[in-house]
Design brief:
With 279 residues, this protein is an alpha+beta fold. Helix content is 15%, strand content 24%. The radius of gyration is 27 Å and the shape is globular.
Length: 279
């Protein structure tokens, strides 16, 4: 003989279940949003490498491909700063940010190479000729956000960047980089040669578990157009560690009002069943 649960009993059980909250499921950050970085030895199969994600390149470095690659992961400050030739320290906390769409410097497509290749490898701004142009002698901020997985030791984690130069594998800017930032702290003004970020002696010189921000300040002297090119970044030091144990989710306590409400529901259900049996 099957025993069916009455509607009232089901309601009571549902009320009890509603007092308990399930822990959220974890998921790999999908493409097009700030990625999660892992040590290569512990990287999930469907998570891309740091080297493939931390750059200013469209898909395959193509100037015209509809897939703008990593460019839409970068953001720009919506304000620029006149006659400020060095990035502030720290990064101003009042900046408002907007994502790039990967087409801000498409005007270069009307030029001959190598300029026609710029939209595939740089981010920045070069407005159509019919629009007002960027003013000369202004400073611009651009940033890239990512998450560091809990299995990465943040105290030793380092990212290595190439030297400033004219090659496509170099760090480049129009006109020059005048600030490099790790989570808001200016680590240097204009890099001299290859450089690394992270792994410093102090906490504010280290990346952290969870959300991080890499930013650059670029000073443009000529106006018209400006851009930043970040290429060939490598994960030079990545020490794996066991993920810290997750904090246990506490079981909610049923206080007096909760017990009274639950008792009322259960009591009502029992009374209804007795009346039904006598009938």
């Amino acid at each position: 003989m099957k025993h069916r649960i009455s509607c009232q009993t089901a309601l009571a059980l549902g009320a009890l279940a509603g007092l308990f909250v399930a822990a959220p499921a974890s998921a790999i950050t999908p493409p097009g949003t700030p990625p999660t970085f892992y040590c290569d030895a512990n990287r999930p199969a469907n998570a891309d490498t740091v080297e493939a994600q931390l750059n200013t390149r469209a898909k395959n470095g193509s100037a015209t491909d509809a897939d703008r690659g990593n460019q839409p992961r970068w953001e720009r400050a919506t304000a620029s700063f006149a006659l400020q030739s060095t990035g502030s320290d720290p990064l101003p906390s009042t900046l408002t940010w907007a994502f790039f769409n990967g087409h801000e410097i498409d005007r270069y497509l009307t030029f001959s190479p190598p300029h026609a290749n710029y939209p595939g490898i740089f981010i920045g701004s070069y407005l159509p000729a019919a629009q007002p142009q960027l003013p000369a002698n202004h400073l611009y901020y651009m940033r890239y956000r990512f998450k560091l997985d809990a299995t990465v030791n943040p105290a030793t984690y380092q990212l290595q960047f190439p030297a400033i130069g004219h090659g496509q594998t170099n760090l480049r800017a129009d006109d020059r980089v005048v600030g490099v930032y790790l989570n808001g702290k200016r680590m240097m003004v204009t890099p001299a040669g290859d450089f690394t970020l992270g792994g410093g002696a102090h906490v504010n010189e280290q990346w952290k578990t969870g959300e991080n921000e890499l930013a650059f300040a670029v000073y443009d002297t000529g106006g018209g157009g400006m851009w930043l090119g970040v290429q060939s970044v490598t994960q030079s030091v990545c020490d794996w560690r066991p993920a810290p144990a997750a904090a246990a989710t506490p079981v909610p306590t049923l206080h007096g009002w909760g017990l009274a409400a639950l008792g009322g529901l259960l009591g009502g259900a029992a009374a209804w069943r007795r009346r039904k049996k006598r009938a």
